[in-house]
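Hi R.,

As promised, here are both runs. First protein below:
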Amino acid sequence: MSGIVQGEVHLAFFNPLRPSFIEDPYPALARLREAAPLYRSAELDSWVVTSYDLASQVLRDDARFTADPSRARNALAGHFALQAQRSGLSGVARMNSSDRPDHSRLRTAANPHFTRAVLRSRAGRITERARALLERRTATPSFDIVTDFAVPLARSVAWDHLGVHDPDEQEAVHRWATAVRRLETAPDAPAAEREAGAEALASLRAYLDARGADADRGDAPALQLLTAGGDLSDEERLGVVVDLGLSGNGSVAGAIANGALALLRHPEEEAALRAHPELLEGAVEEVLRYDAPTAVLGRWATADVDFAETSMRAGDEVLVVVAAAHRDPAVFVEPDRFDVRRDGPPHLAFGLGTHHCAGAGLGRLEIAVALRELLAAFPVLRAAPEAPRTPPRARNWMMRQITSLPIEVGAGSAAG
């Protein structure tokens, strides 16, 4: 097994922009991992890491690999320079993309609001919301797990945890946060869109200022983080709102949908989970391993470094393909098999080390509640007649996100 193969050699099978790759990347990733677990892609202008061992090393090594994309030296450098000019929050330290000491300060402020005790107090609300969404299934012959369930559940839980309980307020705050995020991800957007983002940022700031009096309310544990004093600046609090509020749209909703699809395609595992509810916790971990909603985590070399017998330059982008690491046969037995009884090494879906996801516990809770309530509502998971054989996915190879997954309601559904 070689350490590095130049990108041009393997573009015939490693083309992450190809529709067939987005539908099922695992065969190509397996070939790439076998040929070159550390691979220099000329097309992506990045290093691509596909083995579990090397992926774990990169994610744990904050000294040599940063999560801060402003350190990039490739085409991203210009993107982030423009972003810094046009986005009101782009220069603000964020948990997902900052290093120590800023990351430690932000993480210390957030951690008390994601403890086990706090999560236990939220479990009932999450269950109520899941059941309310599932009750709507009786109105139509099919029920879309993505648009009717996973996305609205994850969105509602995220904002509810931040103290935004009213559905209309959740919709407004979500709209503002999305517009702000759009400025960060597309700084070259048209002027009208940039203006809308600036207005959204002002609206979000005004809303949080108005909610300051609610900071001590027991039903809004994370609201204290956003309104109380301490080490966070006002702009950093706004960044926390945007990041935590929008997190469920991608990772949590994606995991719920991917988990439902895995159960639908593996009826023997669905039956095992129904017969043995105690397997649920492990099933959540298997869903996150088998088809992680975030397929790639980005890092950048902090300096010229030697890694895995290869020389990297400062600012080189390193794409850690956790989707490939999770199917590494050197670590996982029969890695391509979905097994709710699997008991093995931990997955990397929430990252490792310093940047292990602060909301991992909340995400696991949401996924568990969602799968449990889906199985309770539907005695059998069966694709709706109109469902395509291969569910459509977002055209982004770094995310494994289904955009629609209709299942059959039928006469056998449990009462709402």
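And here is the second one, sequence first, then its structure tokens:
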Amino acid sequence: RFQEADEVVVDWPHRWLEKQHVDPRTVIAVLTHDAKFDVPALVIALRTNAGYVGAMGSRRTHEDRLARLKEAGLTDDELARLYSPIGLDLGARTPEETAISIAAQMVQSRWGGTGASLAGRSGPIHPGAPR
């Protein structure tokens, strides 16, 4: 059914995530739009050392999700790690454009970029990069 997949998982997301090796290079994006999946997965994800944890949803969904995560016992420091609503403001309209905005935010968070346009900027394009 999913010939291109490296792995097909038939399990609850949080149970699968608990068994995974997560390190600072790991990025976790929760895209389910359903609190019964989102909240347990985010509780696990935000307590790992993943370099990026994001969740899709509207601002209203984000506020509801934060309340549920607080009820689940997450601290303010843990909640501050959550990128939600997920993605950079690129004006995305299609699913493909939304995926690009999410991937761009993952790169931005990893390397500390601003997400601003490079046009009209002086100095090195990639400060701190090896030459």
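A quick note on the second one: Helices lie at 13-18, 35-45, 59-71, 76-79, 95-111. Let me know what you think.

Best,
J.
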